[in-house]
Amino acid sequence: MIRLIFLFVVLGAGLFVGTQFSGQQGYVLISIANKTIEMSVTTLVVFVIAALAGLFLLEYIIKKVLYTSVTTFNYFSVRKMRRSRRYTNEGIIKLLEGDWKLAEKKVTRWANYHDMPLLCYLVASEAALGQGDKAKRDHYLELASKQENSELAVQLTRAKQAVREEEWEVAASTLETLKAEHPNNSIVLSLQKTTYRELGEWQALIDLLPKLHKAKLIDEQEQNELNERAQCGLLEDIASQQGSEGLINHWNKLLRKTRQSTHLVGCFSKQLIARKADAEAFTVIKETLKKQGHDDLYKVLPELNLADTHPVVVLLEDAVKKQPDTPEAQSALAQFYFRAEKWPEAQRHFERALSLRPDVSDYAYLADTLEKQNLSKAASEVSRKALTLIDSKQ
């Protein structure tokens, strides 16, 4: 538009000047090397205007040709990109439907034309893994890693796939890399929880729990359960490495609140018993039971191998007097009477425990106790009840 206005202005100016100097065309001489060109001023003006018009026309034609070429190229590029997006969307649906082979085919067919090839290769890696082809999975992850800004997405996909396939060492190595740059990523934290638990990295899991709770990935109840499990696992590791002395030293360094957990007291006691430190185990259990009774601790008492069982019997007799409806205390006391061959007392407490809850082990003990008293018919009846209970659990 500006060029047309310019031409009209120049043409108008030429017409005006031409009318003013009509009959006085003037003279123009152009000399170049050995050549000369002669013309009137009017001819020169017409020539200049024609030349400008020709240049403008040539510019228009060139631009039109270039625009047509670019438009054609863009049309085919956009068409390919749209097709790639469509195939990728269909591939994701097939992945969700479990059609791994078709999903892989669709997302990789036009991946080079997709505006985000990273997505195509990550979906393809999932499809390859679904087919059990780990080599192809790794190939697609390698292609994905070559895309821009792909590190986090690729490493998270690799870690999730490793966890799913129970490749715990691979998962741990990948998560350790992510942990340095993305310590608060919720997916990284969740995967670390599973990996540490499966690998028995108990101290690492204990250190991770506050972050998991802060990120609202676990509630307080799950945090306590995981902490007890990790602490129990750590006690076992220390006991196997440092023996009962190292185990006791570690226990004494724990927070008072932690040592008050009856579950952990039971774990600690079992590790002591396994290393012939039964007297120390009994001391810990006794002190805990004085503060609060707990079925798991009563179950541990019959496992003790003590030279003098009288203190344990006294403890249990006192417990069943105060809380006669505690089946585990009744059972534990009955087992000590059984060892001492006090058959009537053992029978009475086994029967009391079984009246409160059924238990296969107590039925077996009771049957033996009755046999020792020559009560074969009653022993057979108890044995049948035990078999019935076993069948019902299968």
Automatic annotation (TrEMBL):
Pathway: Porphyrin-containing compound metabolism; protoheme biosynthesis. GO terms for biological process: heme metabolic process; porphyrin-containing compound biosynthetic process. It is found in: Cell inner membrane. TPR repeats lie at residues 327-360. SUPFAM superfamilies: TPR-like. This is Putative protoheme IX biogenesis protein. It is a multi-pass membrane protein. GO terms for cellular component: plasma membrane. Keywords: Cell inner membrane, Cell membrane, Membrane, Porphyrin biosynthesis, TPR repeat, Transmembrane, Transmembrane helix. Residues 26-132 form the HemY N-terminal domain. Gene3D superfamilies: Tetratricopeptide repeat domain. The chain crosses the membrane at residues 39-58. Involved in a late step of protoheme IX synthesis.
